[in-house]
Amino acid sequence: MNELLQEDKFKFNTDEHILLDRRHAPYPKDLGEAKQLWSQRLRYEYLQEKLSREISPTNSNLILTLPRSATAEITANLTRHYRWNLRLVTNWDGTDVLQAYLNALAHAYDPHSDYFNTEHAQDFSIGMSLSLFGIGAQLREDDGYCKIDLLVHGGPAEKCKLLKEGDRIVAVAQSNQPPVDVVDMELTKVVQLIRGPKGTVVRLTISPIEDRAARRVVTLTRDEIKLEDQEAKARLIELPDGHGGTNRLGVVDLPSFYATIDLPGNTEHSTAKSTTADVSRLIKKLKSEKVAGIILDLRGNPGGSLEEAVKFTGLFIKDGPVVLARSSVDGPVNGDSDNDSSVLYNGPLVVLVNRLSASAAEIAAAALQDYGRALIVGDISTFGKGTVQNLNLLRPFFVGPATVSATNDPGTVKITIRKFYRVTGASTQLKGVMPDLVLPDVLNYSTQYGESSLENPLPWDTVSSTNYCPLDLVRPYLDQLRRNSSARVATNQDFIYTRQDIDLFQKMQADKTASLNEHERLKERQEADARQKVRDQERAARKTPNVKIYDLTVEKADLPGLPPPAGETNAVAANSAPEGTNSTAAAAKVADAPKLPDPMLDETERILEDYISLLSSNQMLIAK
Fold first, then answer.
1. Which of 53, 74, 252, 488 has its CA 20 to 30 A from that of 390?
2. Which of 129, 131, 256, 359 is catalytic?
3. What sign does the dihedral 593-599-600-603 (CA atoms) show?
């Protein structure tokens, strides 16, 4: 790589194209062909760096003439990037090798079976439990250094007042033990050194942002850090009803089906987490504020706890089976049911899904659809993960030292044990859940998302249906709801933009290559920037809708009244939070990022309003 960077003149004036996705391409025949592919990849990355410097987005997409120093800067950036990637591999220890090998072995049979070493098991437990034990800092790799990117509000790192965003951690010590140098150490290993049991002490050697040559030691006592930004949350949306009054709608955003699980290194939680308990508090708040209907936003929800999905579904139905499951092809079929006859909310209900709604999210959506309890809106189908995994600690099968530590814990296996089925008997495996109303979305046309894009997925099949009592609250109104929605979507400007994006995406997906001609790539970049500028100008010129949005959190759901309005339109951040962000501070950091409209949620609100109107005219359902 270094030879290529030093010797290649990097001319980009040919008609050459690079194949971006080589997953299904043949392996190179020999070393010479491998070097040729590597050279092509390096040229592509060099051109990417060059293009990012050549267009001025603040000056009408003007093409800039780069200074001579740009070549050296690009070369240095790529050299640093490849050096760090190489270090990540050469720094592997036996645990890393075993992790990669056992995962590859498991995936040869099933894409959802995994081996977790100690640190990966801890990460999984943290993601499910929404809490960890540490100092409360979001860390990022920065040219071989571990940099503090964000301080979690209320965490030990913020409370000590001795750390700032941008400080680097150069060494970590446990209590009174000698410090361990963490410069050029893989970030995940640094994180493992900093995490630890609640109440224990960790000492960090800091290189301050204001003086990199200085060193100071900061002593912190670890505490439980709650990942509140990943909890369920809600919004109360106040819309004009067209008659001088307002309609109130509720939106519950559920990122995952979380529940406290204890694995080595992440135990003794102060409060057990439960999706159902959190959603219950939010819905009670929405009911107290007299919402006329509720949207459950499960877009991007990857699933989680099967038990929570069943209990969550039970909030909206009286009782009955929620999901069926079978452990083998010819094995018996068993069911998981909601046995609580109480219903928390029996008002108008819509579930919003997309291609990234998976597993437990599909169980809940499928059950609410099969019962005719909720209208399902979104992408052409959900992910299609219709399998159940179980966590198996390997310690009981391990012959070794009696105590478990980071050096002798054999880890955990997450293994597929069952396939689940809807109460109708159809599996969600591969096919997913098909909404009642489909909205335009680029994800509808992607071949990279969904169970069918994975290697070795289990097939779709059916079992006998079970006895359940459908409510039939959706079917009578579907035709009218579809007509109303189709008319709005056809003229909605944001959906017009979406259809344009779909056309561009389909062309790109069919091509599968990128040009290495600089003039052609600059033209593409300018066209894309100009297209976005036109959209931004059109959106900025729109009349601000008379809509108020109130953000509700689980923590404040029991307080009387509403917080101040947070905004007037549904929007999503154009730039997501930094990778690995697990704190409310991350959300705050991107709060000022450019916002894009969320036409799918906007249209779902219109659909819910139509649904409420149709139900009310037939006196079929009354929100309580």
1. 252
2. 359
3. positive
Of 144, 2, 142, 6, the closest CA to residue 71 belongs to 6
Q: By C-alpha distance, which of 284, 232, 248, 251 is closest to 571?
A: 251
Whether 359 is catalytic: yes
Q: How far apart are CA 368 and CA 385, in angstroms?
A: 17
Mean pLDDT for 196-216 is: 94
Which tokens sit at 331? 């094995």
Q: 318: Cβ–Cβ under 8 A, 6 or more apart, which residues?
A: 341, 342, 343
Instruction: For 580, list phi and psi in degrees, rounded to 5.
Output: 85, 5
Across all residues in the chain, what is the average pLDDT?
A: 88
Cα gap 284→255, rounded to integer Å: 19
Instruction: Report helix, strand and coil shares of the chain as percent, to nearest 5.
Output: 35, 20, 40
Q: Where are the beta strands (DSSP E) in 245-386?
A: 246-253, 293-297, 320-326, 333-338, 349-353, 375-378
**End-to-end CA distance of the chain, in Å?**
66
Distance CA 259, CA 303 (A): 11
Residue 38 tokens read as 């590597």
pTM: 0.88
User: Per the residue annotation, which of 50, 233, 311, 385 is the catalytic one?
Assistant: 385
* pLDDT given at position 60: 60
Tokens coding 488: 């709005």
Q: Among 345, 298, 280, 291, which residue's Cα sits nearest to residue 318?
A: 345
